[in-house]
Structure formats: C-alpha cells, structure tokens
Amino acid sequence: MRQAWRIARRELRGGLRGFWTFLICLALGVAAIAAVGSAARGIEAGLSRDAAALLGGDAEAEFTYRFATDVERGWLEEIAEEVSEIVDFRSMAVVTRGGEAERALTQVKAVDGGYPLYGEVVLAPQMPLAQALAGVGDLPGAVMEAALIDRLGLEVGDTLALGTQDFVLMARIEREPDNAGGGFSLGPRTIVATLALAGSGLLAEGTLFETQYRMRLPEGANLTALKAEAAERFESTGLRWRDSSNGAPGLGRFVDRMRSFLVLVGLAGLAVGGVGVSAAVRAYLASKTEVIATLKTLGAEGRVIFAAYLMQIGLLSLVGITAGLILGAGLPLIFAPLIEARLPLPAVFAIYPAPLLEAALYGALTALIFTLWPLARSEEIRAAALFRGMDGPSRTLPRPVYLCVIALLCAALIGAATLLSGVPELTLWAAAGILGALVLLVGAGWLVRRLSARMAKSRALRGRTALRLAFGAVGGPGGEAASVVLSLGLGLTVLAAVGQIDANLRGAIARDLPEVAPSYFVVDIQSDQLPGFMERVEGDAGVSRVDTAPMLRGIITSINGQPARDVAGPHWVLRGDRGVTYSAAPTEQTKITAGEWWPEGYSGPPQISFASEEAEEMGLSLGDEMTVNILGRDITGTITSFREVDFSTAGIGFILSMNPGALAGAPHSHIATIYAEEEAEGAIARDLAQSYPNITTIRVRDAVERVAEIVGGLAAAITYGAAATLLTGVVVLIGAAAAGERQRVFEAALLKTVGAVRGQILGYFALRSLLLGLAAGVVAVFAGALAGWAVTVFVMEGTYRFEPVSAVLVIGGGIGATILTGLVFALRPLAARPARALRARE
Amino acid sequence: MSETALDLKDVCLSLDGNAGRVEILRDLTLQVERGETVGLVGPSGSGKSSLLMVMGGLERATSGQVSALGRDLSAAGEDALARFRRTHMGVVFQSFHLIGTMTALENVATPLELAGHRDAFDRALQELEAVGLRDRADHYPKQMSGGEQQRVALARAAAPRPDILLADEPTGNLDGTTGAMIMDLLFDLRERHGSTLVLVTHAPELAARCDRVIRLVDGRIDAAGGGA
Ligand SMILES: Nc1ncnc2c1ncn2[C@@H]1O[C@H](COP(=O)(O)OP(=O)(O)OP(=O)(O)O)[C@@H](O)[C@H]1O
Ligand SMILES: [Mg+2]
A GO molecular-function term, please (chain B) (predicted)? Predict the structure, then answer.
C-alpha cells in the first residue's frame, strides 16, 4: 500500500490537467442531485415551519355541502381556544356595464371575523381585511386576486355581483396565508364576509360548498389524541380532520414526488457522467501505458499498480464530489431570493446534510462503478507493451472478481436509490430503463462501428474521400464512437423520453378529451330552477345533448352491518364522501352489467345501483347491504344492480345511485352537463347566469386548459432536469472531442501532406461528427419512445402516440451538438502547419 | 519546363520555441536537378528535417524563395500547396505516419483519391504489390510491423508517381536488414519513375548511394562536406 501511495502521489504531481472531463462530469451529476435534494428539503422545512398558517389553524375540521351541526361545533369550541368558520365554493362573479354583463368563474372564500387565525392577508391598497370586507355604505366589500380583476376589467371601487348580492371591490389580494401552492382551483380567489352572503342565494341547502372550521388550540394540545377523538365521534358524519402535523399533506406529497422524479433524472445524469468518467479514466490509463509497463519492468506487481491508480482516481473523485456538493448546496442558497419570489410555497433555504450525503453516496458509487472497469485492465498491461508498440491492454473482460464487485456496486447504487427515493417501484423501473438504455447504446455504438467499417470499405464510397474517411474514422480502431454514442445518446434518451411523455400528456389533455367532453359543467341548479333550465338549453339548436342529475354527497359507512373499511379495505371510494344521485329509470347511456334496476314507481326499501368496476375491486356482490350517511342521516339500502360508469369523458358519473324514494326529502341541487357547439356556448352561459344568478357554469375547455397549464409546469421542471442530463452528455462530448484534438491535428497534417485541401478535411471532420450525432440521436429517440410508451401506458394509463416533433428535435440536437463540438475542435487541426504536427509525433 | 526540381534561394527559417526564437535554417541556397538524388546529412539538430519540410511546403520559410518544378511555393496558399503535393510530391517519414483508422490499402489509395483518380484503389493495390504487401492490404497499421508500415508509407508516397520524393530517415526506426530492404525499395521506385529524391540520413553508406551529398551544420550548408 505504501508503495502504491508513493506511486500515486508522484503521478498526481502533474496536477489535475487532463482530468477536467472527469471532474465536471462527476461534479455536475452530484450537484444536480444535491441541489434538487436541498431545495426539496428547504421547501419541506418551509412547509412545516408555516404549517399552521398554511392550514389556517393548528387544526381544521372540514365538511362538505353543510355547516357543522351544533353538536359538532360544540365539540370544536370545547377543544379550541378560538374557532374560525370558512365557507369555500365556486361561483360566478358578474359585472354589469351598460347592460352588458361580464362574468368569470371564481373560487369564493367566505370568512368570519376570526379569519385568518394565523398569518396575514396582504391587500393592495393596504388595509386590514376586516375593513375591506366591511365595504362602503350598505354594500359589503370583496377582495379578489389580480387575475380575476384583470379578467373582469375591474377597478377598485367598482361593483360586482355574486349570486344576487352586490359587492364593492375594495382591494387586490397580494397574499393569502392559507393558499400556498393554491391547490387545484379552477378559478381565481374572491374573499367576502360570510354574513354578506345571506342575501345572495348561494349557500342554500343542497348547493355545493365546503365549510372549514379552523382552530387555535391551547399550547401543548395533543393533536394525535384529538384526531383520534374526532375520528371516533364524527367520522361517520363526514367530519374530515387535518392538523398542522400534516398541514398541507397534498403539498408535501407533491414536493416529495417532484423531488423523487428529479432525483431519478439526476441519477440518469450521473450515469451519463459515469460514461464520461469511464472514458476519461480509459484515456488517462492509455496515456500511462508506458509508465505502467515501465513500472512492471521494474518489478511492480499488478496489485500495486491497480491500487496506485485506484488511489489517484479516488482522490480525484473526492475532488469532483466535493465540488459537486458545494455547487449543489450553494446554488439553492445563491438563488434563494429568486426561487422564493417565484415559488408559491414557503421555503427555508439552508445547508441540509441528508440530501448532500445522498448525493455524495450516489456520486461515489457511480465513480467507482465506472472507473473499475478500465482500472481493472491496468493490471493486464504487460511489460512487453513497451516493446510491442503502445497498444494498451487487449479488449478482454476484466477478471471475474472485478465484474462481481462492479455488479455489487450497481446493486448497492440501485438499492440506495430505491430506499431513498420514496418511490421504490418507479426507481426500479427507472434503473431498469437506464440499464436498458446503456445496453442498447453500447450495442448501437458497436453496430455503428461495424457498419461504418463496412461502409468505409464499400466500393460505392471510393472516390468520395471525405465520406470514406469519416466512416473509416468511426469504424476504425481507437475511434471515439462508443463513448460519444453512449454519453450523448443517454443524455438525449432522457430528453427524448421526457419529450415524448410531455407531448403525450399535453396531447391527451388538450386534444382527446374535448372531443367527447361536454362544453359546460353546471352546478347548483335548484330543483325549482330545473324546468326553466332545461327549457332554455334543450330549445337551443346548438345543443346536442344535456344530462342532468340530482347531486348529493354521502359517506359509505358500513357494508352488511360491518364497518365499510373492514370489509372492502382502504379503497378510494371509502375515503371521504362521494357523489350520490337518484333516478327513477336508468338513463340512455346506462349499461347494466348485473342485476336489475328498480321498477318504475318503486317505493319500497332503498335500493342501490353501484359502479361495476369499483364494486369488483371492493368485493361487493348483489344483495349486499350498504349504509350511506347523507347530511348526517344514515340510509341503508340493498345493492340490486351494477352498472358501467366511465369517468374518462368528463360526463356525469356517479358511483352510487338510489331509487328516488330513498333520498326523498334530503335537500339537494342538480348538476348538468351541456354538450353544445362552440358558437352557442357564449349565449347559453350568458342567459343562464342572467336567469339564475346562483348557479355556476364551468367551461370545460377552460378547466382543461387549467389542467394542461399545471401539467405543463410540471413537465417544464422535469425538462430542466433532463436538460441538465444532456449538459453532462455535452461535457462528455466536448471531453471526447478535446481528447481527440491532438489526434486530429496529426491526421489533418498527414492528409495535407498527401494532398488534401482544407475543405476536404473539414468535410471529413463534419461528416464524422454527423455520423456519431445521428447514431446517438436515432438510438435516443428509439429508447426515449420506448420509455415514453411504458410511462404513458403503464404509469398514466393513457394511450401512447409517437410524437415526431420532439423526436426530430432530439435527433437534430444530437447532430447539432456533435457537429458544433466537432467543428470547434477542428479549427486548430485545420490551422496547424503540417510540419509541426508531424514533428510532434516523431 | 524547368530542369530544376527544387530551387531554394536565401532561405531562412526561424521558429519560436519555448526558449525564445531559434534560427534553424540560415540563408540556404541550393538547387536540385530533375532526376537527381541528393543525400542530406549532418549532425542531429542541424536542420535536416526542417529543410525537407520547407522543400515539401509543409513548413513555410521565414524568408527567401522556395520553388519546386518552377513553381513558387513560398507564395502559394495552404490549399494550393496541398494540391501541388497531391500530384508532384511524395513524403516518407522516419516514424511512418500512416493514418491509424485506415487499412494499408486505404492509406495508399488516399492521395490517388484526393487527386481524383477513378481507379485509385486498383492502383493502390498495384503499389502495395510492388512493395510486396498485397496480402496485407486490409490490415490496419497497428497490425503490422515497423518495416511493413514503412513499406506501406513508401507505396503511399510513390503511388501518385510524384516528380519529387522526400524521405526523412526512412530507416531510422528499423533494424539493419529491414532498413536495407526499405532503401532498396526506395531507390528502386525512384529509378522506375525517374523521380527526384532528397534523402535525409545519418548513414554514410546510404548517402554514398546518392548522386550528391549535402552536409548541413547549424542550419548552413557545410562547404567542406559538399560535393561528390
Ligand atoms: N517547433 C520548433 N520550435 C523551435 N525549435 C524547433 C522546432 N522544431 C525543431 N526545432 C529545432 O530546430 C532544430 C533543427 O531541427 P531538425 O529536426 O530540423 O534537425 P535534424 O537535423 O532533423 O535533427 P535529427 O537528425 O535529430 O533529426 C533543432 O535544434 C530543433 O530543436
Ligand atoms: Mg530529423
């Protein structure tokens, strides 16, 4: 070991020159993972720091379509120091100007005097929320998000209506403490006082709204115990409990998901870097063949030499990983103000050791895996290499010991990623994908070399010197084909996969859905408004179809007398409340798969028709008894039929339908879907709003766009991650080009000597780059499409369609990158005087 | 057409080395007639290789005039020089300098191809045959011995039937027997094509085979050593 260390130290005296590809590749990969991890940790810390403000209280109880009963409210007030009631619902904000009405969908939050318990609502112009909501004169006040104010062309001081109640716009909402991340809402926010809605007709029984009771709890309150008590006493009545221990569980999960995805992309980047690392080590060892052979002549054993070079590479890895960690930890800190300004989430940017350790672990394992292979070969260099030209070791596999170690390290890397990512299954798939891509690319590299060698010899190319030279260079011995195709190809594969998935997602949302989806989704139609509503829409020539259904919410509490969860497990249908409807006869679209619909005019004990797919998943059968709690009342019915329910077309679909008699008397409203031609849409929405100010029409196209926007944002984040991977690929590419530059200077000199003009030499270099770029691009598109197909079909359960635009961009990018680097590194060879280049090789 | 193959007047060459400017060739004037063989000798570092490079247009003289076959090389552009070499000059180096990514046949065919000969490959095969390497045509340089590589290099230089052959210690890296064989081949080729030959060598007996020997010392022609 001593000996090895002494050799290593002497060898490293030359400094880090020639190792920059190695260092950059490793550092970039580690930095990307460290940065993603650190940023995610920062956001998690921010979420937990501001948990109470984000939630709006230390704890919250939420109900659907109703206010808390006196019993419920009594309990909440008993356990809390202060309770604040919020009502949340969608509505239309209407502005009338000179007889013309302008309307926009908005998510209304109606608050009491206690709101907000934590944090502060910031308004512009600045004023306390209470003052703003008090309004001017007899008119109550409203505050709105800028997007909505702009959309309606409002100014502060203007009047607008929600339902039948007029409000004065008092200010713009700059910050809403309990709206971080926004969650998913279709319309921008309006805040008003709940009391002001009394005359609006918007909170009538049966309309769709949610109430939230935020609590300020005494110091040291036992959240776990309170949660358990809430569950025990009120779960069956639909009380949903949340507390600041998981204040924004959705957000936290979302951030965690994003982190996992980006870390996976980062790992792909590290694999690309690994290829560069491997190429750099191979080139370094090749340049050391003479030294190694000399050392062997002097009596050094293979072991000592292996150890000496392992130490050198180890030290270099340490430098690269450290640089990556500094970069990865530093970037989020440096850009903290920028990120915070754009992020709708609180974040505490600091140095977090855990993600840095994770990144370092990945980096070290990758460096080891990718250097062991070439290093193992150093043992095989024989002293005779000195005398038989500097051939380097022959192309054989490393000894089995090394292969085993490499396999173990791979397993360790994948194992660590699986454990740490939080999405084990996806990680395993991604690892399989990366390995598959690597194998595919190695195969492609080999094929490209073989084909090129074949082409170079083909008679067809005789006379086309530049082409023949290019094929010869790619196919000949010592070409850079393998490492360029591998590294650039892997980088492009990740980009191609992301591109394919992204394009498919957007395509599916933006294109496929609206063809079958309705134009409008209408909610809160009161029973007495239904006939008028139907008359208006059915009489419209532009409307092809209208579906309506009564809409209630219910919680399935028990099945056959047993608690539902004990019978059917944690199925999503049992999580919280579900839409429930009733109908005398099956609709035209209904397809009954088993059993029979209740007879016309049936008035016996309640009967239930259940969605067939979900029934199967939950293990239900005909004749089962099911108890549903609707607005606090238990209704028990018998399942007498199953029917198909398709949720994919955005039409009306209810898991649970009952005979009308079963639900008679329960207050409710109706929902409707209108299928109309686009030209007719505007007039329908206008007329409906005019006649029925309380009902809300949601334009499906807008909703779809909103979803597409959110998906687009996610895709953009992941595309940035993929771009980082590609950057590593380009670094490897530049490294390969730079390493090959001396060789090219020499080749250019020789070609000039035998009579080639510069144009021919340039053509040759460009063609050579083009061949490699094309190969990398084509393989990447193939592998990317494969990955895209797998993700689209299996993860997102959609249908896959090959997206040519993204594919062309990827191939073009590959060719562009190789040609650009190829040409940049051709400048010196072209300019060099042949005499000097040749002399340097004497 | 001029009877002078190579005509150098007051040629100076200085290069910027690490230790400042080095004067390598100083006021060299010399002529080589068509068909003549000239041996270039002198101590190591005296500038023999540099002179050869200047003659081949591979290095540009700092001052003075260099012309080959009546054509002024000092004024020609880089590409013009390359085109000139294609048809009129063959160069052989001490360390062979074959293109590693090309087979022997491809190496020999390249100058012919660049010169636009349709039958480049057939002619290249003949040239390989002439140096006795027809059966190694598909081998890469790495798969051949030094002597074989140099024979390929000879075939490559001779393939376009150049008027001028420049050889820089072509046997310097080879053992005696192989070296002798290469030399025989070289003189043989020259004889057959009637080329002008400038041969740099350290071996007196090789120099003696030439029509004339020029001795360089410190970048100048050593008058004492000249003649023959
Ligand atoms: N690029 C360069 N920059 C500076 N000096 C150089 C350069 N190339 C060669 N020289 C110097 O020019 C001188 C002549 O070199 P040259 O190679 O022509 O000598 P030579 O006579 O061929 O020697 P040898 O017999 O050893 O091959 C030497 O002193 C050498 O150090
Ligand atoms: Mg020399």
Answer: transmembrane transporter activity
Q: Side-chain half-sphere of B156: how many Cα atoms within 13 Å? A: 32
Does a structural domain hold residue B104? Answer: yes
Q: Tokens in use for A804?
A: 């040519």
CA of A467 to the centre of ligand 2 (A): 34
Opening angle at CA A35, ends A264 and A278, nearest 5: 60
Cβ A577 vs Cβ A64: under 8 Å: yes
Look at chain B and report how many structural domains it folds into: 1
Q: Which residue blocks in B89-199 are alpha helix, DSSP H?
A: 104-114, 120-130, 146-158, 176-193
Residues linked to residue A173 through DSSP beta bridges, in sequence order: A123, A145
The answer to whether A838 contacts B93, with C-beta atoms less than 8 Å apart, is: yes
CA distances to A173, A640, B40 from A634, in Å: 41, 19, 113
The CATH number of residue B168's host domain is 3.40.50.300
- Supply the range of the domain harboring residue B190: 36-61+77-221
Judge if the beta carbon of residue A591 lies within 6 A of ligand 1: no
Q: What is the pTM of this model?
A: 0.70
Kindly state whether residue B186 falls inside one of the protein's structural domains.
yes
Chain B residues whose CB is inside 8 A of the A389 CB are 142
pLDDT along chain A (842 residues), means of 10: 74 71 87 86 81 82 85 91 90 84 86 88 91 91 89 89 91 83 68 88 77 89 87 80 69 73 79 84 79 73 82 90 93 80 73 91 92 81 55 60 90 90 82 87 87 81 78 74 80 84 73 65 86 87 86 85 83 79 83 89 90 88 89 86 75 84 83 84 82 82 72 70 77 79 84 88 89 88 88 76 86 88 86 80 60
Tell me how far CA of residue A750 lies from CA of A157, A563, A813, B56, in angstroms. Answer: 82, 86, 32, 12
Question: B204 lies in a domain?
Answer: yes
Does an H or E element contain A132, and which?
A: helix A129-134
Cis peptide before A125 (omega within 30 of 0): yes
The answer as to whether B13 is a domain residue is no
Strand-pair partners of A673 = A521, A547
Residue nearest to atom 17 of ligand 1 (CA): B49
Would you kindly state where each structural domain of chain A is located, as residue ranges?
1-54+253-422, 86-210, 448-515+700-842, 543-676
